[in-house]
Amino acid sequence: MLAVNKIYVCYKNQEISKEKAVSCLLAEIFKSPLYYCTERLPEDEISSFLIWIHHHIPKILENYDDSSTTFLTYFTSSVRLRYKSWKRSTVKQRCFQEVLDNQQYLDYTESNENESQVSETPPEYEIESENNISLKEPLTKKQATTLLVLSLKSYYLLSDRVVATIPALTGISPQEFSQYLRSIEDKMQDKLEIRKHLENRVNMSYIMCQQYAIELSNMTADSCQYQIVFQKYENQKKKLDYLRYRHKTFNLKPSNRMVEDVLNLPEGSVRRILATAGKSIDQILSLLDLKKE
């Protein structure tokens, strides 16, 4: 390891260039993985670390003060500290990629499998000429309002078929119902942003848990640093469980006030309609003529 000191002396005396000194120091790191804490790295990761640390060695040379300690002590400490930074950065990138891959998979499956999801901007629906659902007699105004309220409260569960059928049942135009859906979506933007922020917090907490777990795997269990990181890991796990619970139980339904604003109903109307919705739906079902089914 004294070769490191000799390399610096040659560099200081201008016997070798900075580029040559950097190359020699890089070779010393490669030859002594145990000394620089890289002995557990797979071969491909050692290569990645050497490529990364190569850009930092010139700065290490420039910042050395030969009145403080030997270059060997300074250099090894600097490399070890930077190794920890590189390791944390690598873990974060790996975890970020895992989260991104999972999210891309979820986005794909949701777009291809979840046919009940309403599109971001509801299209202008036209009533199909062959509609299998008809009524024995028109709905009353109260029944039509109940059906509209339930539809808007269930905004994110409506299928295209339901969206196309509601206007015919309630007596409004497809364009008017489509406008109701757009209005609800506009009012839901704040909720959607909150939910997205919550998703990001879940992802970041998961990444931190993974980072601490990998750090622990590189430590000895009886060290003080291990106990510190272990406590951080346990706290982060609790935080992740809490955030996942909040995300799972987050209410993404439009509020009663939103629906009342869109349908221009008096305050408290939606709450009263929902309280008796079961009876109203039974009445509507009794009016359905399903002979064409």
Keywords for this entry:
single chain; about 290 residues; mainly alpha; two-stranded antiparallel sheet; 13 helices; 2 strands
Give the secondary structure arrangement, pairings included.
Blueprint: H1 2-12, H2 18-31, H3 43-54, H4 57-63, H5 71-113, E1 134-135, H6 141-153, H7 160-170, H8 174-187, H9 189-217, H10 224-248, H11 256-263, H12 269-275, H13 277-287, E2 288-289
Antiparallel strand pairs: 1-2
Helix pairs in contact: 1-2, 2-3, 5-9, 6-7, 6-11, 6-13, 7-8, 8-11, 9-10
Strand sequence of the main sheet, in spatial order? 1-2
Uncertain regions: pLDDT < 50 for 5+ in a row? 103-130
Number of helices: 13
Mean pLDDT: 77
| Dominant shape | rod-shaped
Cα-atom radius of gyration: 32 Å
Strand content: under 5%
Question: Count the strands?
Answer: 2
- Roughly how many Å apart are the termini? 86 Å
Helix/strand structural class:
mainly alpha
Main sheet record? 2 strands, antiparallel
Order of helices and strands: HHHHHEHHHHHHHHE
> What percent of the residues sit in helical stretches (DSSP H or I)?
55-70%
Short description:
This protein is an all-alpha fold. The protein has helices spanning 2-12, 18-31, 43-54, 57-63, 71-113, 141-153, 160-170, 174-187, 189-217, 224-248, 256-263, 269-275, 277-287, and strands at 134-135, 288-289.
